[in-house]
Each structure stands twice: as structure tokens, then as C-alpha cells.
Amino acid sequence: LALIDEMESPSPVLDTKVGDFAGEGTPQIYTLCGKGNRSTLRVLRHGLAVTEMAVSELPGNPKFVWAVKTKRSDEFCKYIVVSFDNGTIVLSIGEKVTEVTDSGILDTQTLSLSLLNDDSLLQIHPKGMRHIRPGKPVNEWKTPGQRQIAKCAVNSRQAVVALVGGEIIYFETDNMGQLMDLQRTDMQNDVAALALAPIQPGQRKALFMAVGCFDNTVRILSLDNNQLLSQLTLQAVNAVPSSILLTRMTAEEGKEAKGKLFLYAGLKNGVLIRSAVDEANGTLSDDRKRFLGPREVQLREVSIYERPAVMALSTRSWLSYTYQGRFHMTPMSYEELADVSAFSSEQCPEGIVAITDGSLRIVTLEKLGDLFNTTMLPLSYTPRRMAVHPETNHLIVIEADNQTYPLAEKKEMEKAMNEGEDSKEESSSKRRRLQGGKYEESNGKKAKEEKKDMEEEDEDEDEDIDEEEQAKLKTFLGELYRPAAGKWASCIRVVDPKTLETVCVEELGNNEAAFSVAVIQFGSKDDGYYICVGTVKDLVMSPRKHSGGFINTYRLVTGSSKTELQLVHKTQVHDVCLAMTQFDKKLLAGVGRYLRIYDLGKKKLLRKCENKSFPTTICTLDTKGSRIYVGDLCESFHLVKYKPSTKQFYIFADTTHPFYTTSRCLLDYNTIAGGDKFGNLLVTRLPDSVTEEKEEDPIGLQGKFGKGRLSSAANKMSSVVNYYVGEMISSLQKTALVPAGPEVLFFATVMGGVGIFVPFQSREDVEFFSHLEMHLRQENPPLCGRDHLSFRSYYSPVKECIDGDLCEQFSALEYKKQVEIAEELMCTPSEVTKRLEEMRNRVL
Predict the structure, then answer these.
(1) What residues have CB less than 8 Å from 310, skipping those under 6 apart?
(2) What is the spatial distance between Cα 392 and Cα 398, in angstroms, rounded to a whole number?
């Protein structure tokens, strides 16, 4: 059995942060995963994973690159050709990459280099074309009137060039393999891009070509002999086309699947347009648009799994390909590329050769179909929470493991164990030497036998003597790997998100375990940010007991040589602190079921205010203005108002039913989303009728007499959204996954899944996807036969939420069923897939 592939499980995911902390221009997803020795900090980046096979520096700044074969039937490429502004170099691929000087390629700037159908090379440069045929004289074609070639396009039997000024000249190879000038036309405008359609098997030539002009148009021209270079279609675009490409792609599996002809148009404003070409009359339809980046888009055709794919080069490199019956448009997690070409060799059967920053690189793509690629940093213990330092963007990760020895104690135990074994071996060998000296070795054979018997007797004696020591050693080893309950190992780790390396680690002693962390800027001292960590000493889970909690206050000191955590002071508290955040330039902490405000003091934190009215344990805290959103471990959310004049908290709103909170996210001033331990998502909202006057509680009764128990608050929050995810939600965050993109509700589950909830922007979208979901529930039931509606309503009826995963299965249905559902929706299957793709591209 040979291992083909493996999928690493990030379970359990305990906390996530989304943001561009590494300064890459696009947000990254930082997740705390695993347990014990499998604990990791993983960074998910949107894009395909890229493996770098080789890097070679080039002289100067290259513009174009091609990988070419000697014959079309060859399996691997033979040459890599690199074009510069004033020349072209040819590199031979073998055991070593060497430069070739007798290839026949002209040493000038090359615009295009292609292998034709008869295994001849066609080089196009600004002043003409050079046709290199094996074993035959080289043919040259010069541009008329010293005019230069602006753009060109080539397939296996046809070539077209556009001269400066807008004149297009079309060539075809005849039966003798010679390029013939067949037709010329003037576009009445400068040409910005050219493309030729690929030739179908069994046909002699392609019937369409595309021209992009500086008047913001893309035109389809006919190559039929009866109407050569006549215009068939004109499409207006919102910017000048910088690159266009005609390619044949299919979403069906198998090499014999007939592809569909598509026109890709990359614009100078960074937008990519994909249109379907009708092969009967050349009309364009089913336009799909996507913004790739602020730089103009350049298009190149490559091969992925022996199928054509399109690479779009902008500020990021994007790959458009088909995989498992679906079209994908995914960025590459790699630096900006200037030009690429398909490449194959013995070491890299299916790769890409690229140029960037004066270097030549050979890369391969991995795990097609994946939206994210992962890099990871191993951690010492189970991660609990993390926070981001606003000044340095460093990640502050707290780790804690139960029934585990700290690393320092483990090292001391291993050292003591090794010293015991060394002393035992030394005394045993000394005893053997003293006993062995009494024997005479006159008779060699007899002496060897006697010595062997003596050693066996010594070993038996050693076993008898060391029985107690071995028993002690076994007990010691058992304690080493399975310490008693209540033994904790914990640390605070500072990680640089740019390099994903540990900057410093602070081990916690005295059997303390860290459970919460926050970065606070106190108003009393204007000297930067402080890191507050909530710890507990001698914690035993069942029956629950401990020796008290602490809030440790640190400062992150960055020096020229190293960065370290400096302990400012420790503040003792009576219970575990599970939640902390900043409020009014002070520390707001949930200590057990007490809500407290602390300010910075010289020797410890100073308690300013507290409320003891919460039901069980405070596990989440959020603030906005003077309002505090408290998440209780078993009793959902409470809205709290703080009065600075009286330094008093009071609960003015809560929910009507219990909710075992595991995560939360503040959506707006009146709305909060939360996840519970059963896998439900809940969005609750405070009614608009609760005004600021009601919040202020003018008679003060709630602040003095309200206990906040048994849902006794004066105002009630109403449920807006109910949805059963299926796994416990461990993290929620409102964020944008693309620069300048719309905000979405990002979530992670304890089993390792990540997903997003996307808000609809129009009532039309709500109605369309609601009807699509309804039809898919009937036409595409789950494999196990369970009703989809009852599954999503497992704990409470699903409300105001549409299952996007179910809607995405539309493309996997049989075409007949797609047509039936589309007719019910009064549209076509392509329009349904377009709506799904637009929704997906809007957020990713």
C-alpha cells in the first residue's frame, strides 16, 4: 500500500483571529489547534499551496519566459527561453541548466515563442518573425515600412500580429509548413491585446480570434475563409484590455470530454472577465467578472492535471481551473509574478516556470480544490486563548495543560534519571573488573567459559539487588507521564506573525494555569500597553476546587537583541478569571460570576467597581460605548450599563431562555451573535423600543435591587436568527476576508471546521436563495435519508438563515435536474451558477 495523500485534522480549534497581522495585504486566519503535544498555531491563507522546486538568479530584469519542447510528442520540456528588453537567452534543461548559443533564436527582445505543429519554432520580435525549421533554412519576415509589432498571438498552425497603428496581419502554415500572409485589416484603433482560439482535434485551423482595442472594446473576428477577419461580435468593457485569451475548458471529467470555448479578458483596472463563446456565430454570453487587484491583469495558459487552465497575473497570481466538476478561481499563496509558462521535466512532471524580481523559479501547485493553505508553529501545551498586541502585531498565546509537568521539571527529572542510570552502570562495571581480576586466563577456552558464567551470575545478582530501584524507577516513569490531577503546566508565548516564530516564552510556575488574556491600555499611565493574564492555582476540575486566582500584569519589552515579557505585578482574586477586555481605559474582568473594573496600581490592580448578580460564571465580555455585553456560561447574554458618577453596574436587558455560551461576536450596538456547546448559532437583538432613557434607569431600582437571576431584567432581547451548525462553535468574529470586501461573520468549530455567515444585501437575493434551498431539499436529499429541515432545526426551528452548503450542491446535480430547478426559478442553470459564484466571489 502506498500513501497517496493525507488530510491533517486541526481538531480541536480553540480560538481564532482574522486579520492582516503579517502585512501581506490580505487577511490571514490564525487558529489555535490541537491538544497536548499535538498543539499548534496554524495560519490559514486564502490560496493554493505552492512548492518551490528551484530558484536561479538572472542577469537583468526579464520580461517574458517560455518553456519549449524539441518536438510536440516529447514528454518533457527541453529549453527555457527568457526575454529581456534588449536580448533573449536560451537555457538547456538537463542535469545542469546551461546557456545555449546555437539554438537559432535571434538575440533580441522576443514577444512570443511557440512550437508549431510540424515541430518548428516561431519567434516573434518587434521587427518581424523568425521561423526556425529543423533541417531546413530559417525563414525571416520583416514588418513593412520599419513599423514595429505591438501585439501577437500564435497557435499550432496560425499566427496573427498587430502593428503599431492598428493594422492586423494574419498568417497560416501551408502544406509545406511555410507561413503564408493571407489577410490584412485595419482596426481603426491601436490594438491592446490579441488572442487565437486553440485548434480542435481533427480540424486544420481555429475559426475565431479576439482583438482588444484601446477604445475599451473586445471584438471577435472570424477566421473562416469565406469571411476572413470580418467582425462577428463587439463587447464593450469598462477599461482598456491589457490581455485576452481564448481557451477551451470543461468541467466534466475524462480526457475525451469536449470543452467549451471561453474568452478571458484581463483589464488594466485589475478586473478579469470570463465569457462563453458561441461556436456557431461567435457571440459572447454568460459574463463573469472578478476584481483581482489594482495592477493590470496579464493572462497565460498553463496545464493542470493535463487539462488547460488560465493563470491571471496581477498583484496576486490567480488560477482559473476546473476540478471535480466545478470551475475554480483561486489565488496562489506566492509572491507577485511577472510572467509564467507551463513546464514539465523528470523531476517536475507538471509545474510552472516563472520570473519575478530578476530570478527564474520553478514551482508546482498542490492540493487543488482547497481554499486555504496552512503553515504551523508547534506549541508546548494546549492553547487556550490569544490576543493581538496593537503596537507590534505580535500574537500573545496562553497555553495550559492539566496532569502535565512543566518543561523545567521534566528536564530535571530526565537529568536525574540519566544520572542514576550512569552511576548504576559505572558501579556494575567496576564490580565486574574487581571480580574478574581473581581469575587466571592461562587456558583461553576455559577462562572464557568461566568468565561468561561469572558475568551471568553477576547479572542475576544485580537483578536481585536492583529490584527495589527498578520498582522505584517504574513508579517515577509513571508519574512522569501521568502526574496527579491538579498538576498544571502553563506558559505565555509571544509569536511574530510575519515569520511565525516564537519571540519569547514565559513559563508559569507555582502550579498556575492561564485561561484568559487581554491587551489593555490604562488611562492612568500613558506608557503603552499592558498584557493582563488571568490564572488560577491548583485547579482540580472534578470536584471543582482551587487555591485562588491571579491577574498577572506584564509589559512587552522590545530591545535591540531580544523581546521579553516583564512582570509588573500580580493581583490575587477569589475565583477563575475567564474573560477580560478593555473598558474606559481600565480592565474589565469577569472573575467567577463577579463583574469587576480594575485600574493600574503600583503594586497590584485596584478594584474600582463590581457586580455580583450574574447567575453562574462570566465567560465572555464585549463593550461598546458605556454598554457592556456579558456572556454567562449557562444563561446566555446580559446587557449591562455602567454609571461613572456612582461607579455602579446594573443589568437592564437579558434573554428569555438559557444558552450555554461558548463564543460570541458583537454585530452592532443592539445585536449580538453567539454559539453554544450544542452547535447552535443564535443572533439576538435588543428591541428599538429600549431607548437610552430606559437604559439610564432614572429611578435606580434595577441597580439597587435587581439581582440579574432567573431572567429578571426589565428588558428582553429577541431572537433574530437560529441555525444548527452541527458542531460546537468555538470562535466567532465579524471581519472581511478580502481587502475592501464586505464584512462577514466568520466562525470556527471545535472539530476543525471554518465557515462564514454572509448577510444578504437585497430582498431579491433572499427570495432567490430561499427558493433554491427549498427545491434542493426535495431534489437532493442527504445520503443518510434524514430530512434537511429537521437537521438544521435540531434544537430550535431554523430561522432567517439559508444553508449555503446545500445551495452549492446545485452544480453537482444532473443537468436534467438543474434545468428543472432553474425553470422553477424562472432562469437558466448558468444563471443559477452565476448567482452562486457572485455570492462566493463577493466574500473570497
Answers:
(1) 245, 247, 249, 264, 299, 300, 301, 302, 319, 320, 321
(2) 18
The C-alpha cell of 832 is what? 443559477
Let me know the angle formed at the C-alpha of 787 by 783 and 788, rounded to the nearest 5 degrees: 85
CA-based R_g, the chain, Å: 35
Instruction: Give the residue among 814, 817, 811 at the shortest CA–CA distance from 833.
Output: 811
Distances (CA, A) of 793 to 91, 271, 721, 808, 810: 63, 41, 12, 20, 22
Within 8 A by CB and 6+ apart from 444, the residues are none
Amino acid at 364: T
Helix, strand, coil % over all residues of the chain, rounded to 5: 15, 45, 40
Phi, psi of 122 (to 5 degrees): -120, 115
Q: Choose the weakest-confidence range: 206-215, 316-325, 613-622.
A: 316-325
Residue 479 has which C-alpha cell?
A: 508519574
Task: List all residues 6 or more positions away from 331 whose beta carbon is below 8 Å from its beta carbon.
Answer: 46, 47, 48, 316, 317, 318, 319
Q: Is the peptide bond before 543 cis (omega within 30 degrees of 0)?
A: yes
Alpha carbon distance 737, 720 (integer Å): 24
In this structure, the strands spanning 606-611 and 618-624 are unpaired
Residue 706 scores a pLDDT above 90: no
User: Which band of pLDDT confidence, cut at 50, 70 and 90, is reported for residue 324?
Assistant: confident
**Residue 397 and residue 770: Cα distance in Å, rounded?**
41
Tell me how long the chain is: 844
Beginning with the edge strand found earlier in the chain, give each strand of the sheet holding 79-83 in spatial order: 64-68, 79-83, 88-92, 98-100
Measure the CA dihedral 180/308/151/156, to 10°.
-10
CA gap 532, 590 in Å, rounded: 13
Q: Are 162 and 211 in contact (CB under 8 A)?
A: yes
Residue type at position 51: T
Amino acid in position 96: K
CA distance 15 to 33: 8
Crossing angle of helices 444-465 and 407-436, in 10° steps, is 140
Strand arrangement of the beta sheet that strand 13-19 belongs to: 13-19, 28-33, 40-46, 372-378
Band (pLDDT 50/70/90 cuts) for residue 475 is: very low
Output the CA–CA distances (angstroms, integers) from residue 668 to 445, 652, 747, 752, in the order listed. Answer: 93, 17, 17, 27
Strands laid side by side in the 271-277 sheet: 241-249, 260-267, 271-277, 284-291
Rounded CA-CA distance 489/39 in Å is 14
- Which residues make beta-bridge pairs with 231? 221
Distances (CA, A) of 842 to 185, 215, 287, 373, 735: 41, 28, 16, 20, 13
Query: How far apart, in whole angstroms, are the C-alpha atoms of residue 333 and residue 842?
Result: 19
Cross-strand partners of 161: 152, 169
Yes or no: say if 564 and 592 are a contact pair by the CB < 8 Å rule. no
- Neighbouring CB atoms inside 10 A of 542's CB total 6
The pLDDT value given to residue 202: 85
CB 631 within 8 A of CB 616: no
Given a cut of 50, whether residue 600 has pLDDT beyond it is yes
**What nine digits make up the cell of 528?**
503603552
Buried b (16+ CB within 10 A) or exposed e, 385-420: bbbebeebebbbbbbbbbebbbeebeeeeeeeeeee
Sheet with 298-304, side-by-side order of all strands: 298-304, 307-313, 317-323, 326-331
Q: Using CA atoms, how far apart are residues 133 and 85, in angstroms rounded to an integer?
A: 25
Which residue type is seen at 632?
Answer: D
Q: What is the pLDDT of residue 809?
A: 92
Residues 6+ apart with CB under 8 A from 268: 239, 240, 241, 242, 296, 297
